[in-house]
Each structure stands twice: as structure tokens, then as C-alpha cells.
Design goal:
Elements: E1 2-6, H1 21-33, E2 42-46, H2 55-59, E3 68-74, E4 82-86, H3 94-103, E5 108-113, H4 122-126, H5 134-148, H6 150-154, H7 158-166
Parallel strand pairs: 1-2, 1-3, 3-5
Antiparallel strand pairs: 4-5
């Protein structure tokens, strides 16, 4: 079973912000499940009841984390792009830092690009809504990959995932 854990803030006025890209991916996958038979191959979670910066606390309650992929917003990835990686550092993302402190570094990342802003406070930026459709299109595309190409996630086939992401 592949676990996809989308991180975000479970606070009503923050649900549509860039920082909730991980939650948005889980919602997109759930919406696509209505039309797909592969739903028993993925187990989807959000850090409901925990802030994004304490998401690791939620994960320690899940017993089998072998095939874990964490979905999150990434300032270092261009808006509208998705990057797939395994075992990399948090690169400044506090939610990811917390997860790594609780379970270690051996898990996959679904890095949803939001781009680093120029001349704006990072906190204000990630906690605001994205106006461009690129973010939402990339999340829909990542959901499609998670559902239709789940074997690539299971086998940690980063090269094939990266090639698929370039086809968008």
C-alpha cells in the first residue's frame, strides 16, 4: 500500500493557500477516485488536527511507512511544476523538518512548485492564495500520475516519474 501524506494547515481561512498544496493534492486524488478503480492501492492522509509545522506528530501514529510519499508546497520548484524525489533534506520547509525529526529521511517527496517570490515576505506569500491556474493544474496532473502510475511510486522509479512530469 502506498501512503500519500499531504501536509497543510487545517484552518478554515488557510485552506486555499499555497501552503496547503499537499492538502489540495489529497483532495484532487479523492475527487478522481470516483472514476477510478485503483483506490485500494493508495492510502491518503492529511495532518488534520496538527499544524503543518507539526505534521510529523501525525505520522508517528501510522505504523507502516515503507512506501510513504509526502506532498507539500516547495518554493524551490517553479510554479506549475512537480518534482519527485526520495531522501532529500527539508530545504528550509518547517513541516518537512518536523517530519524528518520524527521518522527520518527515508521517504518520497511530491514537491509541488509555488516558486520563490521576489520582494515579498515568505510567510505572507505561502499563506496567500495563488491566482495563477498553474498551481491547480499541476496538482491535478500530479493526482493523475499518483492514480494511473502508482507502480512508479511503489517502485520509487524517480526517473520515470520525472519524465512523466515533463510531459505536462
Amino acid at each position: 500500500m502506498i501512503i500519500i501524506f499531504g501536509i497543510g494547515n487545517d484552518i478554515k481561512n488557510l485552506l486555499k493557500t499555497r501552503h496547503n498544496a499537499g492538502f489540495m493534492l489529497i483532495d484532487a486524488i479523492n475527487n478522481k477516485y470516483k472514476y477510478n478503480h485503483n483506490h485500494n492501492l493508495l492510502s491518503l492522509y492529511k495532518n488534520i488536527g496538527y499544524t503543518i509545522n507539526s505534521a510529523g506528530e501525525y505520522l508517528i501514529n501510522i505504523t507502516k511507512l515503507k512506501d510513504l510519499w509526502v506532498a507539500y508546497d516547495d518554493l524551490e520548484v517553479e510554479l506549475g511544476k512537480i518534482k519527485w524525489s526520495w531522501g532529500i533534506s527539508a530545504k528550509g520547509h518547517n513541516g518537512l523538518k518536523n517530519i524528518i525529526s520524527k521518522i527520518g529521511i527515508d521517504f518520497g517527496r511530491i514537491r509541488i512548485g509555488i516558486s520563490r517570490p521576489q520582494n515579498i515576505d515568505i510567510t505572507d506569500y505561502v499563506l496567500s492564495e495563488e491566482k495563477s491556474p498553474l498551481l491547480y493544474e499541476s496538482i491535478e496532473f500530479a493526482a493523475k500520475i499518483c492514480i494511473e502510475y502508482h507502480s512508479l511510486l511503489k517502485n520509487q522509479n524517480l526517473e520515470a516519474l520525472r519524465k512523466l512530469s515533463q510531459c505536462k
